[in-house]
Design brief:
Largest sheet: 6 strands, mixed
Number of strands: 12
Structural class: alpha/beta
Number of helices: 13
Order of helices and strands: HEEHEHEHHEEEHEHEHEEHHEHHH
CATH topology of the largest domain: D-Maltodextrin-Binding Protein, domain 2
Distance between the termini: 28 Å
CATH superfamily of the largest domain: Bacterial extracellular solute-binding protein, family 7
Low-confidence stretches: 1-12, 23-42
Mean pLDDT: 88
CATH class of the largest domain: Alpha Beta
Number of domains: 2
Strand content: 15-25%
Shape: globular
Helix content: 40-55%
CATH architecture of the largest domain: 3-Layer(aba) Sandwich
Length: 373
């Protein structure tokens, strides 16, 4: 497990800063609210959980996460659990900070985007490398194969109990001008959310520009980016269909995220409450995955104005469907660019992990890389 002394000084300082913000806003920690003064009755006091959830602008938060924590779980606990939840980007947390802040206990219960873990622990981010899972069926196979290792490593290396794995809708490519296939990415500035996506598009001649989800529309409107990789429906929710004209619907990544608890905060919960959460969170996870699959299809329908669009805003984008040429090029890019770059970040000790767990489901083996001088 990483300790406070192992963390970079700036990370600790950032943790202290956010701890002060959270304390001031009432968004920090797990607290017992003793409604009865006698110590023997504290065990009957309601438990108040403070949760940092997923992206504010994506449908997953208002449709799934927020109702679960604020309504479903309190009702199932018969009032023994009360909760407050805030999206991590509304809490002032940057994507890559969540893992460290959970290790520090600044965020006791939180949602980490897998892409944000890539720089801190590339081994765990292997589950959602760009170009690895072209469809939901492939994604489910990858998660099933890797999940036990993810849970064990998170617990032992980072002091975090993994409680659920969520999937956002497929991350697709929005472009602001004519686009017929991946070869058209050459020379274009493309918004990406993590380094793995950059590794996937560089072989096509694209220029990766990393930015937060909240800055996607303004970046395209200002011309700072020509294309943007983000969720089909989440892009619709923030209005990308109003500034982009073409939509390439091949999935780059799925925006996997891990919901977990600081091990100290988790251990402190009463056994019956831990059991309830462990029983109910898989139901939330299943609902999020099913909704993600629906939203991927609906996102395309809404953005293009073709098909059923029940929850989004209708656009007039032109759909660019993946073809055999693009599929072949994506697989080559994953094999020759994405996977080797991951090994370089992770180290050759990660090669056996990939080959044991994920090579059987992807059909692509990792190779040992020459050590950089």
């Amino acid at each position: 497990m990483t300790t406070l002394g192992d963390l970079p000084r700036q990370t600790v300082a950032r943790g202290d800063q956010l701890r002060r913000i959270f304390l001031k806003s009432g968004l920090l920690a797990v607290t017992l609210l003793p409604l009865i003064a006698h110590p023997s009755d504290i065990k009957n006091a309601p438990l108040r959980l403070r949760i940092v959830g997923g992206l504010a602008g994506a449908n997953q938060f208002p449709r799934q996460e927020e109702p679960f924590w604020q309504k479903t779980l309190p009702a199932l606990s018969r009032g023994q659990i009360t909760t407050e939840i805030v999206p991590f980007d509304k809490a002032g947390i940057r994507t890559h900070e969540m893992l460290r802040l959970m290790q520090l206990g600044v965020v006791p219960f939180g949602t980490m985007l897998m892409g944000g873990i890539l720089s801190a622990d590339p081994e765990l981010a292997a589950l959602d490398l760009a170009g690895m899972n072209p469809n939901m069926a492939a994604l489910r196979r990858s998660v099933a194969a890797f999940r036990p290792h993810l849970e064990q490593t998170m617990r032992e290396r980072h002091g975090i109990e993994v409680l659920a794995i969520y999937a956002y809708p497929a991350q697709v490519t929005f472009c602001s001008r004519s686009f017929t296939g991946l070869a058209d990415l050459a020379g274009r500035r493309v918004r990406i959310s993590n380094p793995s996506q950059a590794d996937l598009i560089r072989p096509f001649g694209a220029v990766p520009i990393q930015s937060e989800f909240s800055a996607v529309v303004s970046g395209m409107r200002s011309g700072n980016v020509d294309c943007a990789i983000t969720g089909a429906m989440s892009g619709n929710a923030i209005g990308l269909q109003e500034v982009a004209s073409h939509l390439h619907t091949s999935a780059t990544t799925w925006g996997l995220s891990v919901f977990g608890a600081n091990l100290g905060a988790w251990t402190a919960l009463p056994p019956d409450m831990k059991s309830l959460i462990k029983t109910e969170l898989p139901k939330l996870e299943a609902a999020i995955w099913a909704d993600s699959e629906r939203q991927t299809d609906e996102g395309v329908a809404c953005n293009t104005g073709r098909g059923s669009c029940l929850t989004g805003k209708t656009g007039l984008m032109k759909e660019v469907q993946t073809n055999a040429v693009d599929e072949s090029k994506l697989r080559i890019s994953f094999r020759d660019s994405v996977l080797p770059a991951w090994v370089q970040r992770c180290g050759n000790t990660c090669v056996p992990v990939w080959n044991r767990l994920l090579a059987p489901v992807t059909g692509i083996r990792a190779e040992t890389q020459a050590t950089r001088p």
